[in-house]
Amino acid sequence: MASIVGYSQHDGLFAPGGSMANMYGMLLARYRRFPEIKRSGVSGLGRLVAFTSVDAHYSNTKSAMTLGLGADNLVLVNVDEEGRMDVDHLKECIARAKQDGALPFLVTATAGTTVLGAYDPVDAIADVCQAEGLWLHADAAWGGGALLSPKHRHKLRGIHRSDSVTWNPHKLLAAPQQCSVFLTRHLGLLTQCNSASAPYLFQKDKFYDTKYDSEQKTSRGTHRVLKFWRFGKQRGTKGLERHIDHLFEMTKFFTETIREREGFRLVLEPQCTNVCFWYEPPSLRGKRSHDQYPQLLNSVAPRIKERMVKTGAMMITYQPLHSRPNFFRLVLQNSQVNAEDMKYFANQIEVLGRDL
Ligand SMILES: *Cc1c(COP(=O)(O)O)cnc(C)c1O
C-alpha cells in the first residue's frame, strides 16, 4: 500500500478505523516537531495549531481534543465551490496563526471528503507544507481506493509528498470492516514516538526477527493485521482496479440518469463515488425564487428517507452542508451494483417523493 501511495520507504500500522489513523498523523506530526513532548508533556510548549478544511472529517477535531490541542486550535480552512481546500486561504490562515504567536505544525488534506467526495489539491498543499516546514497528513480514508486505478489515481496527485496517510480499505475498496491503515514515510518515527518500556512483553532476544513485533509502534496493545493481506490476495490488484473503475462508471451512469430527469438537481459534479443531489417534488418545481423554498426543500429528503426505511426500499443518506438545504448522498462502494440498480434508485425516489 505504501508503494501504491508512492513512498520510497515507509512504516505503518493497522489502526482500528480511520479516526484513529488520523490521530496517529497528528501525534507523529507533533512528536517530529517537539520530540521533548514524550517526556515533558504539552505544558510549556505554547499554542500548537493544525489546519484542515471545513469539510474534513470530524475525527480531526476529536484528535485535537484528545491530544490536548483543543478543538479551537484546529483551524478550519475554507473550501471552494467544489468542496476542495482553498490553498490561498490556507496560506492566510498559517500566516495569521504565526502572527498570533501560535505554532503551526500540521496540515491535513482530505482525499475524498466524506460528504461531497472532494479531493483537496494535495500537490499544491504539499508546496505550502514544504515552504512552511509543516507535516502533511493525507486523509484518504474514503477516497484512497482510487489509487488502485490508473484511470482515477490522478485525483490524488502529490500524495507521495505527504508525510503520512490514512487509508481505509473498508471504504471504497469494500474490504470487511474494520480495515484501516496508517502509513508514514518516516522510518522509525512511530516507535520513537510511541514506545514505552515493558520488559515483560517486548523481548528482543527472541528466536525470530523482532522488527515485525509492532506493539511498540502503537499506543494500543492487541491489534490484527492479516485482514487486508488476505483480502488483497483474494481480489488481486487487477480485481481491485476493476472494482474501482466499475464504481466510478456507475457513479457516472447515475449522474447522467438524474441529470436528465425532471425534479433532480445535482449539488455538484462528483469527484469520488458520492453523488449529491436534491429531489424537488412536482409541488416545488419552478418555485426556487420563493422565500419558503429552501425550508421546504430542506424537509423533502428526511421525509423520503423515512419512507425508504419504512418500506425497506433502499438506504441513501442525506444531510445539510453549510448553507445548502438537505440533499441526498448516494455513495457507491459495493461493486455488485449495476445500471438497473441505478435506475431503481432514481425511480424509487420519485415514487416515494412525488406527492410531497
Ligand atoms: C470515514 C472517514 C474517516 C474515519 O474512518 P473510521 O474508520 O470511520 O474511523 C476519516 N476520514 C474520512 C474522510 C472518512 O470518510
List the helices and strands and how they pair.
Elements: H1 2-5, E1 11-15, H2 18-33, H3 37-40, E2 48-53, H4 59-66, E3 74-77, H5 87-99, E4 103-110, H6 122-132, E5 135-139, E6 164-167, E7 180-184, H7 189-194, H8 226-259, E8 264-266, E9 274-279, H9 293-311, E10 317-321, E11 324-331, H10 339-353
Parallel strand pairs: 2-3, 2-4, 4-5, 5-6
Antiparallel strand pairs: 1-7, 6-7, 8-9, 9-11, 10-11
Helix pairs in contact: 2-4, 8-10, 9-10
This protein binds pyridoxal-5'-phosphate (PLP).
Pyridoxal-5'-phosphate binds at residues 17-19, 22, 57, 59, 110, 114, 139, 141-142, 168, 180.
Describe the structure.
The strands form 2 sheets. The chain has a 7-stranded mixed sheet, sandwiched between helices. It is globular and about 70 Å long. It is of the alpha/beta class and 356 residues long. Helix content is 37%, strand content 17%. It folds into 2 domains: 2-224, 3-Layer(aba) Sandwich (Aspartate Aminotransferase, domain 2); 254-353, Aspartate Aminotransferase, domain 1 (Alpha-Beta Complex), CATH 3.90.1150. The mean pLDDT is 94. The chain has helices spanning 2-5, 18-33, 37-40, 59-66, 87-99, 122-132, 189-194, 226-259, 293-311, 339-353; strands spanning 11-15, 48-53, 74-77, 103-110, 135-139, 164-167, 180-184, 264-266, 274-279, 317-321, 324-331. The site of pyridoxal-5'-phosphate has 13 residues, from helix 2.
